[in-house]
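Risk register update: the risk of archive-format incompatibility is retired. Evidence:
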Amino acid sequence: MQLQLQLTGKVKKQNQLKHMIQLDALRAIAVFGVLVYHWLPQQFFFNSTVGVGTLGVKLFFVLSGFLITLILLNTRENLEGNQRIWVNIRNFYIRRFLRILPIYYLTLFFTTIFFLGLHPSFIWHFAYLSNFYYAWHKWDINSPFWSLAIEFQFYLFWPLFVLFVPKKHLDKLIYSTIIIAPLFRILCLQMALNDRIRINLLTPACFDSLGLGALLAFYNYNQNRSRSKSLLSNLGFWIGGSLSFALIITKNHIDPGLRLVVQDSINALFFVWVVDRAARGFGNITGSILEFKPLVYLGKISYGIYIYHSFVAGWVVPTILNYLGFSYPKSVGIQFVLNTVTTIVVAMLSWHYIEQPINNLKRHFKV
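Archived output:
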């Protein structure tokens, strides 16, 4: 992405964010964890003990906080005064909306027409408030929308903070964002809201994952904070990694309230190290895996995989099988393979014929 500012007839030298290919592979791994969580039995080890679905979503949040904050810091660096700031803010939102809105509303249209009908939840999904809806209602075919709603809400307010808060206070803003999440979860426990799943659907409860990603971006962008970045990354590996593993092996022996307060922050801290290393580029066999072209490609279409997967499994696959005269397989393994392959095919078609052409419109809205 290129950023530029016109200054008294001169063009300021552009900063350019390099494409970090291994982050695409992380997206693919994260979305695969979600598929495992939704389509394999809950007693399966990676669901019951590891919780790969939750981990996948939290990894997405850390990635989003990191990449969006990098873009915003790059934008801010190329703005002197406020000559183009509102143009850049407008263009930032337009670019985000071009990326996330079209197939979101397309999927909402499909689930409304072919599955749910004009359900009362429609207005919540339409307004990107799905997380609040599911905090008090049962899951349904649109349940994956909850995490998209949180990211959308984050995209709405975060640019204004990053672009307008004085530079000397930016790190304090990010620290505050991280601290809000566990404090919010403690508050919910004090109010006797002890349903872990429902609490974590509320946007403030996810600020630690988004904020830690943003903090990594802040340290990464400011070269004079390289020691702080190294410290954060090391804490992510040694403290975050160790405690994340400890939480897995002691799952049934830790007070649920304590787990609720600390688990997401600990996992997000570990993912900071993962994202930092992938952004710089893992070497050896890990780097080869994360740069394996099919895996990178799946990461590129991961948004489509995530947004379509529930509708594909709930309506598309059964409809196709019924049309071909086959019954829905009873084997969970066959169901998983069938749903996964079909979802990938749908996401591929969506990427090449819907998303990519729309993304090309971004060239008219540079920041």
